[in-house]
Write the structure tokens for this entry.
Amino acid sequence: MRVVIIGGGVAGSAAAAAMRRIGADVTVYEAYRDPAGPYGSFVSLAGNGLRALDSLGALAAVQAAGFPVDRQLMWSGSGRLLGDVPRGRRAGDPRRSVTLMRSDLVAALRAEATRSGALIVTGERVLVDDSRCAEADLVIAADGIRSSARRLVDPEAAEPAFAGLYTVSGIADHPAASQTGSFNMIFGRRGSFIHLTAPDGAVWWSAQIAAEVPPDLAAVTPATVAACFSTEPTAAGIVAATSRIDGATVNEVLAPVRRQHDGRVVLIGDAAHPVGAGQGASMALEDAVVLARELGATGHSPGGVDVEAALASFIGLRAARLGKMTKSASRNRDAKTAGPVAARIRDLVMPVMFNRMYERATGWLYDFDPGSLPTPVRVVDNRSGAETP
């Protein structure tokens, strides 16, 4: 089976590694010269994302590139502790959440895909109707929320819309901010502020700031962030000590995509379901594993791989989980943009309810196991005749 993947970020690189494990001949086309590039901020992977990485053979590399985070602490803007729970897992799960730079996650996935025999071509923007996709048995569109493939697969799909938040991230020298191993979220007056301390003592932070209209991203500076969190002492102190800031990005939402495949082309990751809430990368990893698993299962039939049947099964298996995740992400955004009255109620209720309800409310998310995949097999590239491991 010949597979072309459009997009070499988290979703595309994960899909490449997954497809190689079922013996597909895989080529990835990535528009950026370096898909692991020095852009983007950090990502955190919960238990479900780590299981998917394990299925892809990339877990150890990702763990080595990041650091474990044991606890998640929720704070009011004034510094009152609202909740303290295990980060991204049930209390009895020994596998800790991992935080790392997005570029390092992409690099680890790309290395695994390449090691497994996938060809990754960078600096080339390819569309679904490009001649390079014409002979593929399957085209996987992993080209993000601004997907060029989505409109071809579903002509009635909506365009992404501003979610009322924009994100700014940075690194600060502020050793008193938090202990290593804790993920801290501050609910501020203008948005939420996340910070955690890396093993080298640097503080990684990310601010999600509420706005009625998208800002001029080029004009967003540390001073902009400082002004938004001037009434939250911890956040203000971290921003004041910032030594590096990443470019601001606009948070967008996408109405449900009703048609996610056309029998040969399938949308995965943010191209199909941008969820946010710290689960975008994990959901993309799950997609890659489940898709490969379904394709591999149909490949055992007498007629070989039934791509259309596998895609239908894949979409059916993912629909309920992703729908639930989208609703959860919406509630997450609402909490970050709460008005004064709602924020006051939240600060009163959370210390009583959050710790008690957390595991019951999130178990469905963190317990998910996408299943196992076979180890990579040797295939012959029909174009060159070369055998890949």
Remarks:
- Residues 162-252 form a domain with the D-Amino Acid Oxidase; Chain A, domain 2 fold (CATH 3.30.9.60).
- The first helix runs from residue 10 to 20.
- Confidence is low (pLDDT under 50) at residues 379-386.
